[in-house]
Amino acid sequence: MVRAGIIGANGYAGAEVARLLMGHKDVEVRYVMSRSFAGQQYEGVFGNFKDINGKELCDIKLSDMAEDADVIFTATPQGYLQGELVPSILDKCRIIDLSADYRIKDVCVYEEWYKLEHHSKELIEEAVYGLTEINRDKIAGCRLLANPGCYTTCSILTAYPLMKEHMIEKDSLIINALSGVSGAGRGAKIQNLFCEVNENAKAYSVALHRHTPEIEEQLAYAYGDKVTLQFTPHLVPMNRGILVTETAKLSKDVSYQDVRDVYDKYYKDERFIRVLDENVCPETRFVEGSNYVDIGFKIDRRTGNIIMMGALDNLMKGAASQAVQNFNVMFGFEEKEGIDMIPMVP
Amino acid sequence: MVRAGIIGANGYAGAEVARLLMGHKDVEVRYVMSRSFAGQQYEGVFGNFKDINGKELCDIKLSDMAEDADVIFTATPQGYLQGELVPSILDKCRIIDLSADYRIKDVCVYEEWYKLEHHSKELIEEAVYGLTEINRDKIAGCRLLANPGCYTTCSILTAYPLMKEHMIEKDSLIINALSGVSGAGRGAKIQNLFCEVNENAKAYSVALHRHTPEIEEQLAYAYGDKVTLQFTPHLVPMNRGILVTETAKLSKDVSYQDVRDVYDKYYKDERFIRVLDENVCPETRFVEGSNYVDIGFKIDRRTGNIIMMGALDNLMKGAASQAVQNFNVMFGFEEKEGIDMIPMVP
Amino acid sequence: MVRAGIIGANGYAGAEVARLLMGHKDVEVRYVMSRSFAGQQYEGVFGNFKDINGKELCDIKLSDMAEDADVIFTATPQGYLQGELVPSILDKCRIIDLSADYRIKDVCVYEEWYKLEHHSKELIEEAVYGLTEINRDKIAGCRLLANPGCYTTCSILTAYPLMKEHMIEKDSLIINALSGVSGAGRGAKIQNLFCEVNENAKAYSVALHRHTPEIEEQLAYAYGDKVTLQFTPHLVPMNRGILVTETAKLSKDVSYQDVRDVYDKYYKDERFIRVLDENVCPETRFVEGSNYVDIGFKIDRRTGNIIMMGALDNLMKGAASQAVQNFNVMFGFEEKEGIDMIPMVP
Amino acid sequence: MVRAGIIGANGYAGAEVARLLMGHKDVEVRYVMSRSFAGQQYEGVFGNFKDINGKELCDIKLSDMAEDADVIFTATPQGYLQGELVPSILDKCRIIDLSADYRIKDVCVYEEWYKLEHHSKELIEEAVYGLTEINRDKIAGCRLLANPGCYTTCSILTAYPLMKEHMIEKDSLIINALSGVSGAGRGAKIQNLFCEVNENAKAYSVALHRHTPEIEEQLAYAYGDKVTLQFTPHLVPMNRGILVTETAKLSKDVSYQDVRDVYDKYYKDERFIRVLDENVCPETRFVEGSNYVDIGFKIDRRTGNIIMMGALDNLMKGAASQAVQNFNVMFGFEEKEGIDMIPMVP
User: Fold this and answer.
1) Residue in chain A nearest C240 by alpha carbon
2) In this structure, is residue D341 part of a structural domain?
3) Which C residues, 88 through 147, put their C-beta within 8 Å of a C-beta on chain D?
4) How confident is the model at residue C53 (pLDDT cuts 50, 70, 90)?
C-alpha cells in the first residue's frame, strides 16, 4: 500500500483527492491536513465521509508528513507551501502539487501574473507538468508533479492537436470558458454565496486570468513557437464543470474529416478523452463525476473559423482525478485505477 | 457473468441501473430496452455512456429477453408490464421490478390508489418487497423482487426502529418529504421544464400520493398493527435527493440515548445506513451518488414529539442502487458489489 | 415627501426596502446606512442600483439620523440596535424594525429563545406587531412597528382563520417550512456558499428555531388560549420563497366549503392574500417579487387532518414589502402604494 | 385607454407582455390568445395572475382581434402568423411582432437561415426594426414593428458604438453568448426538462444560430459596410438572462477613455443603457426583471483585443419590456411608462 497524505484537505479539490484515494485499492490515506480545521473530525467537515474514514484533520508540517508518507498531494493556495517545500523533502517523498506554483517554467511570467515572489525557484526546473495524455513519459519518473489547473487542462487538450499540426493560426485563438462555482474554492466570501451566484452569469478577470500564461506556455510547446491568446473566464450557476469554447482561424481549407483525423491521431487510444461525433457539442453533465474530457468541433465556412469545444469536471480531470491519474503513472499502477467512474446523469 | 437486461433504459432510473451494472464486475449488460427510443444508440440518448457501452436501445418483448438473460430490471410505469409478466417467465429469469406493481400485497389498496386494474394479481403473493436491510433473508431466494419507491425507502427506514419498538404512537406520524426533480421521470411535460421547477417549491398530491399505502403497509408489519399516517410530498429544485421529516408523538418519556439505542439495535451493522451524531441533521448532498441512507433525530420535550429525518439519493438507494443491492443478495454476491461509492460533494 | 432612512442597507432585506422605497412616489430615501460597507457607493455593493440612486452607504448613529428623517427602517441583527433605540427617538421619528427585537411581548420568552438579554424592554409594550392584515388598526397610529419574520408571516396567515374559529385542535399543529437561501442573510459563511446549498435540502434548528415562539404567541391571540406547536424549518436551493405545510387535526367534521368560508371570512377583501381554488397548491414562484401570500388547503378524511399550505416571497411580504405596507398604513398612504407588483414568472 | 391583444399569451414572452400591460396605466388588455390553451383561465396557466386579470385564454383570428384592438402583440413561432397578417390588418390595428418574421430585410437571408418560405414578403419593407435606442424616430410612426431577439438586442447594443465609429475591425467580432433557459420557450421538450439543463452548460447551434444574420445586418447598418461575425450561443442553468462576451480587434491604439467616450456619445442620455465603470463586468442578476442593458469593456494591450460585455433580461429588454418600450414610442407615451422597474436582487 502506498502511504498518502493530503495537505489542504478542507478544500473542495483536497476533499475530492481524499474521496478518490479512500476508494483506491492500493492507497492508504494516512494524513488529512488542514490548518484552519485542525482537530475536527473529517466527517464533521464533509458529511459524505461519515463512517468511511475515521480520520481527524491535523496540522502537521510538510517535512514531518514526508517522513511517513510515500506521496503527498498538496491542494493549497499559490505560494502557500513554497517555504516548506525544500529539495530534501523530494528525496523522501513524492509531491503532487495541485497549486500553480510549479506549472510555469518561466518564473518571471509566474511572478508577473500571480503578483507573488517565488520562494522555491530551484524546484521549477525539476517539476513535470502533469497533463497526463501529453507528458506521460516524463511523469512516470518524476518526484515533483505540477498538476494542471481546471481551465488549463480543458483549454489545452481541446486545442492541442490542431495547434500541434499547425491547422489553426497560432495567435488567433479566443477562448471563452465557463466554470462551475466549486472552482472558486470553499473560502467564506460574499461573492460566492448562493444568492450572489445563483441565477447569474458573469465574466471575470478579463484579460488578467492567471491560467492564461499556463495555457499559452503549453500550447507554445505544441506549436513550436510563442502563442498569444485571449482567455475570458465566466462563472455560471452550477457546482461543477468547465466548458471551453475556442474560436480560431483555420490556417488552411480543411474538411470535417481532416480535422477529425488530427484529433484521432492524438486521442484515439486515450481512454479519458472522448472526441464526439460530428455536430455533437460537449455538455458538462456528461462528464460529471468522471475523469473524462469530451471534445467536439464545428467548422464555419462562412467565417473561416473553427469552433472547438471541450468539457470536463473541474474537480476531477480538472484537479483531483487527474492528480490520481498522474499518481498511478508515477507509481506504476494501471492509469485508470480508482478513477474509472462512468459520469453520473443527471 | 450474470446476463442482465434493462427494460425502460431511457428513463432516469433505468439509466442509473445501466450505469451501475456496466460497472459491476460480475454482470454483462446484454439488453437496454426502450420502446420509444428503439434503434437509437444508447450513448446518443445519454451522452455519459459515450465509448463505454456500444449498445443500441432495442424494442424486445419481455418473454424474448428472458430467454437470454438471467435477470431483468424493469424500470417502467405502473401497469406497463403486467400483461407481459406471466409466471412462466420467472422459471427462466429473475425479475427486479422498479415499478410499484408488486409492492403492495393488498391488491384492492393498489387498485384504489393507482386507479388501475391489476392484471397479474397471481404474482403479488410471490413477490418479495426489496427493502434490503429489512427483508434480506426473503430476498435471497426470490424470483420476483418488488423494489421499493424512493419516498418509501426513506420514509420507512427512518421510522422503522421506533415503530418496531413501539416508541412512537403509531397513528401520529406526519411525514413531510422533499424530492429532487429526477423523481418525476424523463417524460416531456411542461410542469417539469427547468423554468417551471427552478426557483420554486410546492407540495403536490396532498393526501393522495401513491407511496402512502406502501409506507403504511410496511410500517404496519413493523408495528404489528394497522398504521395510518399523513404523507405530504414536495418538489424542490435539485436533480437528486429525498429528504423526509417525520414528526411523531413519543409514546413514553425517553432520553436521546434510549432512542439512539433503538436505532443502533437495527442499524449498527448495516453498511448503508448511517445514524448521525446527536444534533446533526441529514442533508441530501452527503448521500448523493451513493447507496447510503443518513438518519438523524431530535426529541422536543416542549411538544412531546420526536422529529426523525432521513436522506437518500432517490435514483440510487431510492431506485437503482437498491435494485443492485437486492440483485447482489439474490445472486449471492457481496452486498456492496458495484454500489460502494463514497457520496460526491459538492 | 416622507424622508426615510434605512439601517442595515447592505443586507438582502435592507436592500429590498431600499429598492421599494426608491420606487415609492411619496418617499425620499435620505440615508442608506451600513457600518461594514460605510463609504462605498451603494451601486457598487448592489449593482442593480446603478444610475438609480447615487447614495453612498454611510455610518451614522440612529439618533442623528432621526433628526433628519420621518421614518427609519432597521434591518439589523437581533439586539444590534437595542442600545441605540431609546424612547426619545420615537418622539422625532417613527421606526419600522425588521429585527425580532420587539415582536415578542413576553421578554422572558425572547431572552430564552434568542439567548440575549434585552436592553430596551421599556419599548416592547408600545411596539405594534406588524402583520398588516390582522393588526391594521393598531398599526395606523404606532410609532414603533415590529415587522414580522418571513417564516412567521407565512405560518400565521396560513393558520389564522382556522385557529381563530377553533376549527383545528390548537396543539396539534405541525409546521414544516421551506425557505430560500436569502433568508439566511448576506454574511460570508461557508454554510451559505453556493456549493454548500445548491443541490441540497436539509432541516435545521429543529425544535429550536426562534420564530417558533413568535408564531405561537400570535396564534394564541387568535385562538384565545396558549398554543404549542412544532415548527421545523428547511433550507432548499432557491433564492427566494417561503413555503409552509401545516398539518393539524380538525376539531370537527367539516366540508371543503366550511373551511373555505372561514378563509373567505377573514381574507376575501384582502388584496394581498389569495386563497387558491380547491386542489390548487401554492407555489413560491407564483408570489415571487410581490407582496402576495397564496394559501391553499386539503382535507384528508382518511386521517382526520387538514393540510394548510402558504407561500410568500421571504424578502417581500416576509420582510421588505410588508414593511412598506405597514409604512403606508402608518403614514396614511394607500396600502398598496409602491408594492403592487404582479409576481414575475419564471 | 389603448386596447391591446396578445397572441401567444401562453408562452414566457407572451405572458411577460401580459404582465407588463396589466400594470400599464394607459392600456386595457382585451385579449389573451392561445390556440393550445384556449378555454382555460389565464390564472390557471400562470398562477401569478391569480386575482389580477380574470381573462380566459381564447382562440381568435388575428383579423377579428384587429377589429377590436388598437395594438396586437404577437409572440408566436416563426412563420406562424404570416398567412394571417395581411396588409389590410395594418389599416385597423398596429402590430408589434416578437417573432423573427419581419426583422431581416433580405428575405433570401431569412429563408436560408430559417429554412422557411416567407408568406408575407410584402410587409417586410414596411416593418421597422425595434431597437428603440437606435431607431426611435422610425418607430414612432410605424404600423408594423419587428421586435428584436434577445441575443440580438444584447449583441448589437454592446458593439454598436464601436462599430459605428470604426473603432474595431469589422470582421473580427467573435460573440460568445450565454442564455437562461426561458429563451428556449415553454414547449414540452425533453431537452429543456429541469434535470437535463440543471448543473449543465453547453454550446448549441454552433455556426448556425438564426440570430446571426440579424446581428450582422444591424451592425452592417452601423458600420456602413457588410459585417461577418462568429456567434456562438450557450445554454446555462438559470431562468433569465443573456450575457454576451464580444471579442474584437481594435482598429487603432486607443485608451480606456477613448472607448468610454464613444460609448457615452451614444448612450449617455439613454435611460435603459448603463455603461459600467472601468473594470466592472456586467452580471445578469443586476438587470433581472428590468428593461436595462448593462455594458462593460476591457482593453487587452497584450493581444490588441477589446472585450465588450453586455447583459440583459431576455424576457424583458430581450422581448417583452422592449416591446412595451416600442409601444410607448409608437403611441406617444413616456418611453419608460410601465417598464421602469429597478432590477430585483437576488
Assistant:
1) A195
2) no
3) none
4) confident
Q: Are strands C202-203 and C230-235 parallel, antiparallel or unpaired?
A: antiparallel
Q: Does residue A256 sit in the same domain as residue A236? A: yes
Flag whether pLDDT at D8 surpasses 90: yes
Q: Does the active-site annotation cover C195?
A: no
Residue C55 maps to which CATH number?
3.40.50.720
**pTM of the entire predicted model:** 0.97
Q: What is the dihedral of CA D274, D279, D280, D282, to 10 degrees?
A: 80
Closest residue in D to A236 (Cα) is D236
- Residue D81 pLDDT grade (very low, low, confident, very high; cuts 50, 70, 90): confident
Is A291 part of a structural domain of the chain?
yes
Residue type at position C250: L
Q: How large is the average pLDDT for residues D291-320?
A: 98
Position C81 confidence tier, pLDDT thresholds 50, 70, 90: confident
Cis peptide before D343 (omega within 30 of 0): no
Domain check: are A103 and A82 in the same one? Answer: yes
Mean pLDDT, residues A97-125: 95
pLDDT above 70 as % of chain B: 100
Per the structure block, which three cell numbers stand in for C209? 428555531
Tell me the nearest-neighbour CA distance from D12 into chain C, angstroms.
8
Q: What is the DSSP letter of C252?
A: S
Is the CB of A36 inside 8 Å of chain C's CB atoms? no
Pick the residue from chain C with its C-alpha nearest to A190.
Answer: C188
C241 min Cα distance to partner chain A (Å):
12
CB D291 within 8 A of CB D154: no
Subunits that touch chain C (at least 3 Cβ pairs < 8 angstroms)? A, B, D
Q: What is the pLDDT averaged over residues D119-144?
A: 96
Q: What is the DSSP string of B94-157?
A: EEEE-SSTTT-S-HHHHHHHHT---S-GGGTTT-EE--HHHHHHHHHT-SEEEPPPHHHHHHHH
Residue B79 and residue B164 in one domain:
no
Contact indicator for D275, D215 with CB cutoff of 8 Å = no
B134 and B189 within one domain: no
Q: What pLDDT does residue B113 have?
A: 96
**Mean pLDDT value across residues D253-280:** 98
DSSP assigned state of C147? P
Give B194's contacts in chain D (Cβ within 8 Å). 181, 192-194, 196-198, 237, 239
Task: Decide: B238 and B181 in contact? Cβ < 8 Å.
Answer: yes
Which residues are CB-contacts of A201 (< 8 A; sequence separation ≥ 6)? A234, A235, A236, A237, D178, D236, D238, D241, D243, D283, D284, D311
Residues B204 and B55 in one domain: no
Per the domain annotation, does C269 fall within a domain? yes
How many Cβ atoms sit within 10 Å of the Cβ of residue D327?
31
> Partners of A308 in the beta sheet?
A246, A297
- C194 and C297 inside one domain: yes
Domain that residue B176 falls in: 151-312
pLDDT digit string, tens, across residues A142-197:
999 999 999 999 999 999 999 999 999 999 999 999 999 999 999 999 999 999 99
Q: For residue A29, is it within any domain?
A: yes
For residue C19, name the pLDDT band (cuts at 50, 70, 90).
very high
How many Å separate Cα B172 from the centre of its chain?
24
Q: What is the CATH number of the domain that holds C166?
A: 3.30.360.10
D119 plus D197 within the same structural domain: no
Instruction: Tell me what percent of the residues of chain A surpass a pLDDT of 90.
Output: 96
Q: What is the total count of domains within chain C?
A: 2
Work out the mean pLDDT of chain A and round it to a whole number: 97
pLDDT value of residue D144:
97
- d(CA B179, CA B51) in angstroms, rounded, equals 32
CB atoms within 10 A of CB D312: 34
Q: Domain check: are D116 and D255 in the same one? A: no
Residue B145, min C-alpha distance to chain A (Å)? 25
* CB within 8 Å: A294 and B52: no
